[in-house]
Design brief:
Length: about 230
């Protein structure tokens, strides 16, 4: 959705959503309604300098599969590239945030997330670390991943609040990042959904996400949105 609707008030957003929903099938509308009820921002993902297209795309696919709505992407040295054959269209159902405008994109991302109330959980073996079964899920948290070869930067580790490792019992000491993300999201999202935590999106968040999903589906949605904004200036 290239046309900005951020300044619309909630009632106008709902009116626009109803207009876009009139352009899709009832089956698609019902599917969106089902999936949005299962989406969460209680868990989110931060990727630091992930440049391998296969890994970058597979992580997005896992986020969509496990109901994680937001992915935060730090681009310091490497640009984040998505392989469409691996992502299978998952990127258009997620909300992606990129951090590539400052001298310290890692710090900019992490401090922004902390300001929003997230604990930063580095996926790296560390003293007093947690496992997927022991990590507290009551408060919002962001799982922070680095590259396979170099791992997380020293800056990312120093700014993290907690550390998380996957118990392993073989000769190999690490997993592919996309595999790690899938394992962690499977366990943690399951624990969260079985907890008493209020993890779903609130109603305003649902409307914002549904607007994006409908806009990504409806042909000529930008023209429809421009016409709506012309008739309903913010």
């Amino acid at each position: 959705m290239s046309v900005s609707i951020e300044n619309l008030d909630p009632e106008k957003k709902l009116e626009l959503l109803e207009q876009l929903e009139g352009c899709i099938t009832q089956e698609r509308k019902a599917r969106f309604s089902e999936i949005i009820s299962l989406r969460t921002r209680h868990i989110t993902i931060i990727l630091e300098d992930i440049y391998q297209p296969h890994n970058a795309s597979a992580v997005l696919r896992s986020c969509d599969c496990f109901g994680i709505q937001d992915v935060h992407i730090i681009e310091n040295r490497n640009k984040y590239e998505v392989n469409p054959d691996v992502a299978l269209g998952s990127a258009k159902w997620l909300t992606l945030y990129k951090y590539n405008k400052t001298a310290s994109n890692t710090a900019a991302c992490i401090m922004s997330m902390k300001d929003k109330g997230y604990r930063i959980v580095a996926t790296s073996p560390h003293k007093n670390d947690y496992t997927p079964s022991s990590l507290p899920v009551e408060g919002k948290f962001a799982l922070l991943f680095g590259t396979e070869l170099q791992g997380l930067s020293e800056e990312a580790i120093s700014l993290s609040d907690e550390f998380l490792r996957i118990p392993m019992f073989g000769f190999t000491e690490s997993l592919n990042i996309s595999v790690s993300a899938a394992i962690l999201l499977n366990t943690l999202s399951s624990r969260l959904r079985n907890s008493g935590v209020a993890w779903p999106l609130d109603e305003d968040q649902k409307i914002d996400v549904l607007l994006r999903w409908n806009a990504a589906t409806v042909h000529s949605s930008d023209a429809i949105i421009r016409d709506f904004l012309k008739k309903n200036p913010a």
